[in-house]
């Protein structure tokens, strides 16, 4: 951690904030504080420069704001510097797409941040519904579960690893879902992806704090939620 | 209904529509407002236009408050004569067809319209006035995005220069849509939820907002808050002449004072003096079960519908400090995605006893835990009733959960 409290930075909520994106910030702060780890949350609007932080969150957004967010982040340079010093980046949906080399918004190809070896284009159909997959064993996480709502398809290069193999839904391309490398991780599970994936939240916290063994929390309700969703998707 | 005035196919269709609606109600399968319209439309697709002809019509649309505003507007217009209205919230053309067929020939009609259907319903019914209330995120997994609806409305409004518009000056999205017309009456109803209007829909700049006031403007000057002619002050509506109309509404919350102001502004365009219209609004006790109070098992149960983040904030404002049941489903009419739960700050419920139920109660449970709100999970509505002491129970539910509970209470209206 770069200061006495864990700094969780929500990047451009004025541009990248659709359904429940705030949730990931709230969940990370909650799960840190529940273990006695002081955490501060910072919301940075697109007019301001990115501060130093431990975890950066990028949410979903409509085409126009997504393109604008990518331009501002490239000009700002703060996210690149953060990745260089191994800060954590967790991005969903439109935020995930703009981490790649390029993406499509309003019918035009837009330059991405190039933080993950991938690019995105338009799919023939919109992917809307439950999304679930078996997570890369290297990450040691249980089944990924979430909800996707996007029109893009994402193609991974050799420098990015898929987050999961799709069991339900579309994800990147019907085969894989999300991507990760080092401490940068993106997913099409939109909105509060971490509500159904507390182990993923803890992985991000471990990366950010360097603490591999975080104390266990009461998972009564997260377990019930996961079981219910996985059962509904025929995966329990 | 004077079916003689209708072309033969339309007359037959209207008759079928009424019969089916009555059947649906009698068999307990619904309010009858949608099923009747579907059958009628199959027989004559122009039926809505035929039924609308000869009436002076107002349309009401927006993400939130349209059912209540429609009800208020119908009440105020009642000063002038008989009013047809789709008071069950069936707000697509089939519902409009049912409502007009059922009402018979009336000089006036007030119709609540789903946001997506506005262009078609305007074309079919040739309204005198449309009221545009607000636009925010709703029906998450399938709705067109907020900015797209604003653009759709703007393009539509531009095609009807003679159509009068009553529009909310506090919502930049609404101002963007309505400002395509020269023919607008502006009202100020406040906007508690602002997360969908950070960015100017005209140019993408950040909208500047006054910290302690209502004024807002795009810094480029392409969109600024119009000066409203109708405003609210506590429980009163101030009309364009500066006259103050004290309301004695039975419906709770500041949001309903805003809905009342909108209704009086619409009715005023038809010629209703707000001094005559205002007292009629206090006769409205509930709207399609919303706000209804029901006594069961020694508890006074009040039903509040909250279907998106903006309306949850309003519901917390309305609910009294009493045990509160939150019920969440995620069926087709609700949207299958529960992500919005994290857009709502549940902390106003901190000091209350909170119970939760519904098909997606676990999504809510995780949300409340993160929010630091204590809760009890109960299997169903009646368990919640039995769990609380005699006295008031507030129920806040999203759409299908609300309908389920309403059915338990014998379709209270
Ligand atoms: Zn502007």
Q: What can you tell me about this protein's structure?
A:
The complex is a heterodimer of chains A (236) and B (413). Chain A is an alpha/beta fold and 236 residues long. Chain A has a single domain (6-232), classed as Rossmann fold. Chain A has helices at residues 22-33, 63-76, 78-84, 94-97, 198-209, 220-232; strands at 6-11, 39-44, 55-58, 88-92, 102-105, 108-111, 118-135, 144-156, 161-168, 176-181, 184-187. In chain A, the strands form two sheets. A nine-stranded mixed β-sheet of chain A has the order 2-1-3-4-11-10-9-7-8, with helices on both faces. In chain A, strands 5-6 form a two-stranded antiparallel sheet. Chain A is globular, with a radius of gyration of 16 Å. Chain B is an alpha/beta fold. Chain B has two domains: 8-281, UDP-N-acetylmuramoyl-L-alanine:D-glutamate ligase (3-Layer(aba) Sandwich), CATH 3.40.1190; 293-408, Protein-Tyrosine Phosphatase, Chain A (Alpha-Beta Complex), CATH 3.90.190.20. Chain B has a six-stranded parallel β-sheet with strand order 2-3-1-4-5-6, sandwiched between helices. In chain B, helix 2 (35-43) packs across helix 5, helix 4 packs across helix 10 and helix 7 (146-158) runs parallel beside helix 8. The longest helix of chain B has 19 residues, at 8-26. The two termini of chain B are 24 Å apart. Mean pLDDT of chain B is 88; it is low at 140-144. At the A-B interface, helix 1, helix 2, strand 7 and helix 6 of A face helix 12 of B. The structure holds zinc ion. The site of zinc ion (ZN) has 8 residues of chain B, from loops.
């Amino acid at each position: 951690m770069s200061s006495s409290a864990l700094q969780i930075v929500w990047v451009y909520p004025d541009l990248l904030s659709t359904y429940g994106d705030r949730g990931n910030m709230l969940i990370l702060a909650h799960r840190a504080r529940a273990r006695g780890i002081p955490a501060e949350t910072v919301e940075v609007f697109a007019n301001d420069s990115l501060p130093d932080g431990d975890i950066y969150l990028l949410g979903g957004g409509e085409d126009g704001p997504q393109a604008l967010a990518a331009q501002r982040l490239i000009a700002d340079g703060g996210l690149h510097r953060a990745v260089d010093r191994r800060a954590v980046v967790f991005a969903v949906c439109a935020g995930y797409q703009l981490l790649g080399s390029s993406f499509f918004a309003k019918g035009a190809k837009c330059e991405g941040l190039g933080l993950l070896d991938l690019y995105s284009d338009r799919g023939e159909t919109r992917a809307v519904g439950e999304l679930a997959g078996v997570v890369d064993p290297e990450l040691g996480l249980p089944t990924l579960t979430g909800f996707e709502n996007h029109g893009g398809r994402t193609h991974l290069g050799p420098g990015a690893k898929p987050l999961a193999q799709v069991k339900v839904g579309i994800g990147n391309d019907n085969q894989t879902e999300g991507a990760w490398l080092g401490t940068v991780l993106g997913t099409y599970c939109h909105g509060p992806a971490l509500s159904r994936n507390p182990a993923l939240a803890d992985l991000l916290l471990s990366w950010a704090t360097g603490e591999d063994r975080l104390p266990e929390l009461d998972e009564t309700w997260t377990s019930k939620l996961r079981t219910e969703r996985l059962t509904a998707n025929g995966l329990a | 209904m004077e079916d003689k005035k209708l072309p033969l196919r339309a007359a037959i269709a209207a008759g079928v529509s009424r019969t089916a609606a009555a059947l649906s109600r009698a068999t307990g399968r619904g309010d009858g407002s949608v099923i009747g319209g579907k059958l009628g439309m199959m027989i004559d697709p122009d039926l809505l236009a035929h039924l609308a002809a000869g009436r002076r019509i107002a349309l009401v649309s927006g993400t939130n408050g349209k059912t209540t505003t429609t009800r208020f507007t119908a009440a105020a217009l009642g000063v002038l004569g008989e009013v047809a209205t789709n008071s069950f919230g069936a707000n697509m053309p089939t519902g409009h067809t049912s409502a007009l067929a059922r009402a018979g020939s009336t000089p006036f009609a007030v119709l609540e319209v789903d946001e997506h259907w506005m262009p078609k319903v305007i074309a079919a019914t040739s309204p005198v006035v449309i009221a545009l209330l607000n636009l925010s995120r709703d029906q998450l997994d399938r709705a067109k995005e907020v900015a797209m609806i604003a653009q759709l409305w703007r393009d539509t409004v531009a095609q009807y220069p003679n159509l009068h518009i009553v529009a909310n000056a506090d919502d930049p999205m609404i101002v963007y849509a309505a400002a395509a017309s020269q023919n607008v009456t502006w009202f100020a109803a406040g906007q508690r939820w602002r997360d969908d209007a950070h960015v100017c829909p005209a140019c993408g700049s950040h909208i500047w907002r006054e910290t302690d006031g209502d004024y807002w403007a795009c810094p480029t000057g392409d969109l600024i808050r119009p000066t409203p002619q109708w405003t609210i002050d506590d429980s009163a509506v101030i009309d364009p002449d500066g006259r103050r109309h004290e309301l004695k509404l039975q419906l709770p919350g500041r949001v309903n004072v805003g809905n009342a102001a909108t209704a009086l502004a619409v009715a005023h365009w038809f010629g209703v003096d707000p001094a005559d219209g205002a007292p009629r609004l206090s006769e409205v006790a509930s709207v399609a079960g919303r706000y209804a109070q029901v006594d069961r098992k020694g508890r006074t149960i009040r039903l509040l519908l909250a279907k998106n983040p903006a309306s949850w904030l309003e519901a917390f404002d309305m609910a009294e400090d009493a045990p509160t049941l939150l019920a969440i489903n995620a069926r087709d009419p609700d949207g299958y995605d529960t992500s919005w739960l994290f857009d709502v700050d549940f902390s106003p419920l901190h000091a209350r006893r909170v119970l939760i139920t519904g098909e997606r109660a676990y999504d809510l449970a995780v949300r409340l835990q993160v929010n630091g709100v204590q809760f009890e999970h109960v299997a169903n509505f009646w368990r919640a009733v039995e769990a609380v002491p005699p006295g008031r129970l507030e129920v806040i539910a999203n759409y299908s959960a609300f309908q389920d509970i309403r059915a338990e209470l014998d379709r209270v209206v």
